[in-house]
Structure formats: structure tokens, C-alpha cells
Specification:
The chain has a five-stranded mixed beta sheet, covered by helices on one side. The N and C termini lie far apart (42 Å). It contains three helices and five strands; from the N terminus they run ββαβαββα. Strand 4 and strand 5 form a beta hairpin. By secondary structure, it is of the alpha+beta class. 29% of the residues lie in helices and 27% in strands.
């Protein structure tokens, strides 16, 4: 139920070689904010991108929520561009320790041949 929800994280992974991992939606329930849950969820998403999808960069859109922007900045994300207004930023982070160069989509393609 909505009262039981701590937070939500929605990642988009494309199925083409040009697709990049994108954190599409990320939120923490108001009563759970300022407890470190957002940082834990963000690290979890980064680990999935690095260890499962084997990519070295994660992308996201930061709206006008200054607390969220501060979380992203303090977690190593940098602005890579504006969307339609200064309140809407594209941000990304380079991830360390990608285990291999083969992307998950390449492995998927190989397994379906």
C-alpha cells in the first residue's frame, strides 16, 4: 500500500547498442527522507548499472527539487546539460570498477542466436 512505500526507483535500460542507463524516476516517501535511504537507493541503482549492465556511466534528470539535486551532487553527479529550463537538469556520473567491457545487451544478443 502507499503508506508502506519507503521509496521508488525506476531505471530505463534500452535494448539497442546505443541505449544508456537512465534513472527515470526516483523518490523517497516524505516520512523516510533525511535518513540515508535515498543515498542507499542511488548506490543500488549505480551497482546495477555497473555490475549487471556493465556500463560506466549513469544518467538522470534532476527537476527543481533542491534537496534531490544536493543528494545527486554530493553523490558525484555532475550537470551535463539543461533540458527545457534551468530548473530541469541532465546529470550523469562516471562509475568506477566496471567488471568487463561486454554490455548486458551484447550478452543477451549472443544468448538468442
Amino acid at each position: 500500500t502507499p503508506d508502506d512505500t519507503l521509496g521508488m526507483l525506476l531505471m530505463v535500460f534500452g535494448d539497442s547498442r546505443s541505449a544508456r542507463p537512465y534513472l527515470q524516476n526516483f523518490c523517497v516517501a516524505p516520512k523516510w527522507r533525511r535518513r540515508g535511504l535515498g543515498r542507499v537507493l542511488l548506490r543500488m541503482a549505480e551497482r546495477v548499472v555497473r555490475d549487471v549492465w556493465r556500463e560506466d556511466r549513469i544518467y538522470l534528470h534532476a527537476g527543481s527539487n533542491e534537496a534531490a539535486r544536493n543528494l545527486y551532487r554530493s553523490s558525484g553527479y555532475q550537470m551535463t546539460g539543461l533540458l527545457q529550463s534551468p530548473e530541469s537538469l541532465h546529470m550523469s556520473k562516471t562509475l568506477e570498477g566496471v567488471p568487463g567491457t561486454e554490455r548486458a545487451t551484447d550478452a543477451l544478443e549472443a544468448s538468442t542466436v
